[in-house]
Design brief:
8-stranded antiparallel beta sheet; globular; 295 residues; 37% helix
């Protein structure tokens, strides 16, 4: 019996080390229990299930709270499914889908996937390794084969990239221009230089997006967008590339809607208004970039 107890202790210790081996981890017991519960439900879904929407809908109603990753003096992998903002909603859903496709319901596997998508090249190595700009997030996760950006088909008789007919040249410098707004950049010259290097890594690239003027159209025009696609809202705010994130949902009205962690509604919601109506209320929003998880 003593030998059996020793074996069990070693196994439990190994499991704990597996969770913490790649990075420091911040979470509450409620988070790990929630993750396992969600994954167990996801594993029971039929192969035809849209897992992205399945998990996004499971998170409806969770309170919106900003800056849930800024909770430690040093960067740690923060897991929080009790409170979400637009970025952590997307990241948690993507990590849940990845873990389900691995046929796992283990919290440690979820954490591994969350780290993979949140940090450049999949590894936490300090504050500056986080994909702070969503263009960084896209670049890193395309390289890792997690997502692909949808940009339309060249040579369409309605024009190249249709309906992604508008373009943005990336000029990301908001963080380096306002370091006082980021606790981990204040009085940290080394981290600030790393952030500037990250900005240079994405700047100058041209990306295509669907302009706001087309977002009220039906699937006949917007068929490139599918249920569960990640929608990144392009902004004209100086120094930024994307101002908000969510998931595409085709409504019963035949129009695109946004499932998002809403600062306005104070929780995760499926917007009752169409995406076009939503964006008309935000003058700095220009259109959407579209991401799709690879299968």
């Amino acid at each position: 019996m003593k030998r059996l107890l020793q074996t069990l202790f070693v196994a439990l210790l190994a499991a704990a080390i597996n969770i913490h081996s790649t990075s420091a981890l911040t979470y509450q017991k409620a988070d790990s229990l929630k993750v396992v519960q969600l994954l167990q439900g996801g594993l029971r879904q039929p192969a035809t299930e849209n897992l992205t929407l399945y998990y996004a809908e499971k998170l409806l109603g969770i309170p919106y709270v900003g800056k849930t990753l800024e909770v430690n003096p040093k960067e740690e992998l923060a897991v929080n499914l009790r409170e979400l903002d637009c970025t952590t909603l997307v990241e948690n859903v993507v990590a849940l889908v990845m873990t389900t496709r691995e046929k796992s319901s283990r919290f440690s596997d979820f954490c591994k996937n969350l780290e993979k998508i949140r940090y450049r090249e999949g590894h936490l190595n300090g504050y500056a390794s986080r994909n702070h700009y969503f263009s960084e997030w896209i670049q890193s996760n395309q390289q890792q084969g997690v997502v692909r950006e949808i940009t339309g088909k060249k040579g369409d008789n309605r024009g190249d990239y249709y309906p992604f007919v508008d373009a943005q040249v990336l000029r990301c410098n908001y963080m380096s221009s306002h370091p006082e707004r980021y606790p981990m950049l204040r009085n940290n010259a080394e981290a600030l230089q790393q952030i500037k290097a990250n900005e240079r890594r994405v700047n100058g690239r041209t990306v295509h997006y669907i302009p706001r003027r087309l977002l009220g159209k039906t699937r006949k025009v917007l068929g490139a967008v599918e249920d569960g696609d990640i929608l990144a809202i392009v902004t004209k705010k100086a120094g930024l590339d994307v101002s908000h994130l969510g998931f595409a949902v085709w409504g019963s009205d035949g129009k695109l809607h946004l499932l998002n962690a809403s600062q306005i509604h104070k929780k995760v919601v499926l917007e009752p208004m169409t995406l076009e109506e939503y964006m008309r209320k935000h003058s700095t929003q220009l259109g959407i970039r579209v991401l799709r998880m690879k299968k």
